[in-house]
Amino acid sequence: MQETVLTGIPRQHENVLQVLQSYYQLTKPRIILLLLITTAGGMWIAAKGEVDSVLLLVTLISGACAAGSANTINCFYDRDIDYIMERTRHRPLPSGRIQPRDALIFAIALATLSFTLLAVFANLLSACLAMSGIVFYVLIYTHWLKRHSTLNIVIGGAAGAIPPLVGWAAVTGDLSWAAWVLFAIIFFWTPPHFWALAVLIREDYAKVGVPMLPVVVGNEPTARQIFYYTLILLPVTLLLVYPLHVMGAVYCGIALLLGGIFVQKAWQLMQAPSDLQVARSVFKYSILYLMLLCAGMGLDSLPFTHEFVSVVAGNLQTIAANVQTMFGSLSA
After folding, report:
1. ∠247-242-228 over CA atoms, to 5°?
2. Could you give the angle at which helices 276-301 and 177-200 cross, rounded to 10 degrees?
3. How far apart are the first and last CA of the chain?
4. pLDDT, tens digit, 9 for 90 and up, residues 123-132
5. Can you tell me the distance from the alpha carbon of 168 to that of 314, in angstroms, rounded to the nearest whole number?
6. CA-CA distance, 95 to 87, in Å (whole number)?
């Protein structure tokens, strides 16, 4: 009789599932989800709320493959320090569940699949942008900056800002100013997001000699930088409303509300830079912020939203005209 485990799954099938799960973990799927949300946001704006479903699916699959490739190579490169840090010791490579050579083959396969899908179903520009994201993340951030400079997150954040460019290019075949504003939004969002996390795991980074900002200068200067970047981020998000006019009143309201909360949380951290609960609150909110901001982009770009806003604006103009007429007759 075939040996089974308590779950009722045959032992050989359980082993296959464990291997698949290890490769899945190697890609850092939680990070990929955020990147795909920004990719979809770029596509939705570029298509004015009418994205081709096949193109959307293919672009998101390609983006997941590209991000998974970059993250896998990052795990390959950092397997020495991942083994030392408690938080990362149980990842597939330092734990020995996947061999380094197999991880590299997996990364190359993912990158090849990403490029092929985008080049065939979208266009060459989007495919090349996806590959540039991998190269930038691996060579500039992982190899050059991460272990050598406090600017690792600032400059390296450009790699995470490429997915909305990929999404925009997949739809339009070019890159407009609006696409670069999307890039800038992710670029300025990245330092507050990662520095808040770095405050939480400062000791781990210090143990392996990674010069994250809190390790080098301390929590107080880091909290100030987080606050400054959130202040810059807020007006950057509004560039899509003015002067570019690609987003409307719905997005504007959402961006102001979300940005105001982000600034408030960053201010609280600046007042208590050593309070890990406040740092955790900033980190968690930064994730929610980006997700809701992209959702706001998608909502604002829908034709239904445009019609609704036009009706509301027309009614307000009618009411204003009636009020003006009423006061005019009274004064006469």
Report:
1. 100
2. 160
3. 100
4. 999 999 999 9
5. 32
6. 12
